């Protein structure tokens, strides 16, 4: 039979599906059947599933695009809770960077398995990761069935070797894991990577069509310090070094100031910002100026940062936090409505990680990355406004099923591709050594 | 055998127990056995459980005092999501108060059952409720096995009948449900109840040793308006009318200003403030000045308000939000640590609802209101800092078991005293009429 007539190989039946209208606004289609073929969405309709196809019965559940974590350091789950109630400077210099000296490749493998278990269980299907030993992380992404954009962090303090390793990894692994892995260049930040390295990063990004994933304008303090030291803001540094000429994912962006907006607006369609509001509250800092960014046409996506600061890799939690914190900082209860933040969680986050048209939507031709949310619990009943129920009442524990590229990774809350018990058993004897800082070494110094 | 030698009738075994030291600081006792007799905590120790006693096996779980919701309007779960993305004034005048005209006693019964299901499932064992038709709520508290402090809301616009009904209810039901129900006088607020009614409320509270539960200084706008209209703050109104001479539970207190602190400090030991930070973010308003209150020796407790504004009755969520929001507003990552907010969730909240020595602690002689938290999920592993794991990583869905007065109300996540399905089925046909506002009536007018 002709290619277009081949039957679906998976049907998700009897769901209320989150779809987008022509303007990208969030809508819900009740009584929907989602058909999947070769890992892609074939259709979302109210027609019955054809006979003979594998069925995921979603009766009474909501189906939506899998969540996208736009900025994470996934193996840092091994340090969850190991650096609490300290200043940001002490968090880096006395805790995290000395502890990261202890990492072995085996630790990164185990911790990434744990992180993937947490993300699959909480409905994340794609994550943009920025860390070390990324080849081990890529292996775990492959084995667990997740989708990820991976970048190997580098500092200029490493000399050429950091950049070279990062570029080599990006070229080698881009498109691997049946296309589920894309890669990025991952200079740590504009204050730990010098202008020459940023310039060659920008060139390499353009030459190889790679995303550049970088911490920038992480706080207003950083922006003030950058202006004091060199007269320009961190975003101006990105513009002057050519980073904003290519595809760019900015982590945090809390220190983005009004003069940065024209630079970012000029790069719209290529530049995105990942925001992780829970951790910002926790360190007593301002949040990402999402309203200004969205007004400038810049894509904004949801993120968790690492679990050493955020304590979870729960994008669902980030979704609620983003809505609540935005309403608070803008002092406007009519801004960042539930539907708006569902838009950010789907199309916005896909754009931020450079995957528009690939993930973040249930429209035909997109990857079949789908989650089912069970709203039968007392905390999500009754339902007067489904968007509000999802954002303000539901929590990630209500996610029952997680599907990536048409493959079911969690079904009825049972993880199918990670052995959590074995992972924790293997990690347990390493915990004391992992958090030891008595060696006095550090991977880097944090100057703020 | 002598009274003190009678054996326990329930043992909760093999838990890590949250206990308090002599200064009230939170500590954890690993490998603990909690013995219960006649609904009270008999002991918390590392000794084995005696033979023949009923056992709740808590292997690998954390046991802590049941959560206390210091301010709720529990039946408002029926309006969950029915008044979203509107201004505070429209929320009251165009949505909630017109919708509340539609309430029948049967609606209140059904909605309170749903609320109790949600609270039991999320680890709340005591709630301080402020609403209408409280006799129906009291019946549901009795039937579900929960503990509550209940006050029947009144406005001066009702004439004498509101006050009389509130006092009558308080006297009739205080100590009912085997002592699990205590009562309060519940004037709505100092701007809807006039000074004469506040004065007789204060006198009746003292005469009958009843808590007065009142919305006061709900926002800085209210405080400004009170000063403009009558030259004094809402807390000064409470002081001048004698309310602060007795036991008082203030809901929200976001508009408490520095000049109020000496008045509240003078009432310490009798006065508490319930804070519900999620809803404050959602309406874009400031939060309760908890640091100033705690410094003044005023008890602060966790609350959810009603689910029409907060979307959940999840005190666990309030606990995390309180820590995060406090760190943010004080711009101090070392304030409101995980241990501090666990203190507020336990001893602080018990004090705020006037139940010090009765609930909020696993110390011998306290009510056996205990919850078990399962930390085996990927999002709560590994554990480097148990307090941080509980507050920043765990969520209410991790609560497996809820016990009130030694009676198990939820076991292994199965609700034992509420038929959720039957409750939702009975509520469903009422939803359209409940949210109808075309009748043009309202229970009250909100002037802010």
Please give the structural blueprint:
The structure is a homodimer of 448-residue chains.
Chain A lengths: L9 E11 L5 E12 L2 E6 L8 E4 L3 E5 L1 E6 L15 H13 L4 H17 L2 E8 L2 H11 L2 E8 L5 H14 L7 E7 L7 H14 L2 E6 L3 H11 L3 H7 L7 E5 L8 H6 L4 E5 L1 H6 L7 H6 L3 E4 L4 H4 L4 H15 L8 H15 L17 E5 L11 H8 L5 E6 L2 E5 L2 E2 L4 H8 L3 H4 L14
Can you describe this structure?
Two copies of one chain form a homodimer. By secondary structure, the first copy, chain A, is an alpha/beta fold. Chain A has two domains: 3-65 and 361-415, Urease, subunit C, domain 1, CATH 2.30.40; 67-352, Alpha-Beta Barrel (TIM Barrel), CATH 3.20.20. Chain A has helices at residues 88-100, 105-121, 134-144, 160-173, 195-208, 220-230, 234-240, 261-266, 277-282, 290-295, 307-310, 315-329, 338-352, 386-393, 420-427, 431-434; strands spanning 10-20, 26-37, 40-45, 54-57, 61-65, 67-72, 124-131, 147-154, 181-187, 211-216, 248-252, 271-275, 299-302, 370-374, 399-404, 407-411, 414-415. In chain A, strand 7, helix 3 and strand 8 form a beta-alpha-beta unit. The first copy, chain A, is globular. The mean pLDDT of chain A is 96. The interface between A and B is large, with 63 and 63 residues.
């Amino acid at each position: 039979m002709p290619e277009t007539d081949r039957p679906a190989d998976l049907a998700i039946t009897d769901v209320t599906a989150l779809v987008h209208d022509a303007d990208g606004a969030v809508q819900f289609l009740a009584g929907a059947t989602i058909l999947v073929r070769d890992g892609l969405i074939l259709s979302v309709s109210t027609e019955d599933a054809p006979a003979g196809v594998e069925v995921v019965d979603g009766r009474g559940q909501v189906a939506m695009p899998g969540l996208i974590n736009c900025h994470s350091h996934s193996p840092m789950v091994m340090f969850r809770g190991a650096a609490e109630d300290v200043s940001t400077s002490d968090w880096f210099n006395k805790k995290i960077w000395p502890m990261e000296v202890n990492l072995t490749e085996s630790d990164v493998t185990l911790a990434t398995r744990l992180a993937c278990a947490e993300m699959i269980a909480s409905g994340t299907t794609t994550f943009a990761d920025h860390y070390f030993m990324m080849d081990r992380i890529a292996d775990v992404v492959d084995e667990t069935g997740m989708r990820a954009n991976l970048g190997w962090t580098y500092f200029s303090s490493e000399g050429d070797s950091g950049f070279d390793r990062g570029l080599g990894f990006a070229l080698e692994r881009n498109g691997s894991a049946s296309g589920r892995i894309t890669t990025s260049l991952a200079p740590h930040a504009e204050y730990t990577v010098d202008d020459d390295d940023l310039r060659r990063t920008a060139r390499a990004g353009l030459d190889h069509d790679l995303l550049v994933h970088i911490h920038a304008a992480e706080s207003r303090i950083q922006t003030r310090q950058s202006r004091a030291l060199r007269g320009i803001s961190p975003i101006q540094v990105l513009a002057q070094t050519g980073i904003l000429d290519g595809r760019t994912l900015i982590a945090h962006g809390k220190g983005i100031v009004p003069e940065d907006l024209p630079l970012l607006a000029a790069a719209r369609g290529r530049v995105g910002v990942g925001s992780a509001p829970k951790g910002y509250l926790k360190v007593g800092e301002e949040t990402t100026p999402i309203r200004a960014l969205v007004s400038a046409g810049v894509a904004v996506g949801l993120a968790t940062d690492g679990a050493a600061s955020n304590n979870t890799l729960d994008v669902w939690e980030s979704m609620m936090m983003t809505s609540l914190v935005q309403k608070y900082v803008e002092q406007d209860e009519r801004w960042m409505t539930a539907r708006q933040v569902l838009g950010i969680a789907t199309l916005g986050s896909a754009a931020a990680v450079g995957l528009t048209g690939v993930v973040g939507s249930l429209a035909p031709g997109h990857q079949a990355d789908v989650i089912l949310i069970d709203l039968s619990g007392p905390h999500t009943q009754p339902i007067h406004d489904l968007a509000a129920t999802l954002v303000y009442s539901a929590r990630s524990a209500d996610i029952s099923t997680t599907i990536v590229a048409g493959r079911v990774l969690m079904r009825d809350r049972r993880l199918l591709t990670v052995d959590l018990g074995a992972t924790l058993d293997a990690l347990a004897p390493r915990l004391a050594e992992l958090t030891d800082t008595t060696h006095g070494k550090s991977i880097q110094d944090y100057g703020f």
